[in-house]
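My hope is that you will study the protein record below before we discuss the fold together.
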Amino acid sequence: MVIDMTDEGSQVSRDSRDSDGSAVTVLLVDDHPMFLDGLRGALLPEDGFRVVGEASSAAEAVALSARTGPQVVVLDLGLPDASGIEVARRLIGDSPETRVLVLSMSEDDDNLLAAVRAGASGYLVKGAGREEIIGAIRTVARGGAVFGPRIAERLQSFFDALAAAPGREVFPDLTPRELEVLDLLAGGLDYRQIARRLTISDKTVRNHVTNIFAKLQVNDRAQAIVRARNAGLGTDGTAPPRPE
């Protein structure tokens, strides 16, 4: 479903205008029609916003964004044809002035960090209230960043832990998540335990481990664990490593 609303007018107010006095243009992207209806219904009565279109897939979002040039894209991550993370990266790559506000059911750390790396200006869960969402759109349109209280706390905790991670300087090629997986691996956890600890799938853990092996230029888990422990990782482990 593609809805282009660029020919429709809207009321504007001083509080919600962009810096040049125009209404903030918004593109809504979600594959659930009822949620799109709710977002549109929340924004249309608000002064200072103009919904320029709605899309329910990644392909539609990219095409509609190119056609309408929205200032803010409110983006769900669970699209049917591609990850919302990839959409965010594409939209910002094509138009760096576009601001992306992720509005998702997911509170998974991987999705949160991936959205930040992709350039998203904000991340809210779909349980956020109407006023919080409207305020977030206003903030990102003005160049600010918005993360819900729990999301912001988790981001801060993650970056604090990352700064203190003993292997950060030793393994600079590893992503933060790969470093976390390596630390747990060196601490004696098996793949299933790591998956439970990080709230990700076993397959995702195995993918991370494959990348770790390649970046560390090791052939197996034992070699990776030796490298990690020599770098000071794995100090919180409670069990000896077990072969897969």
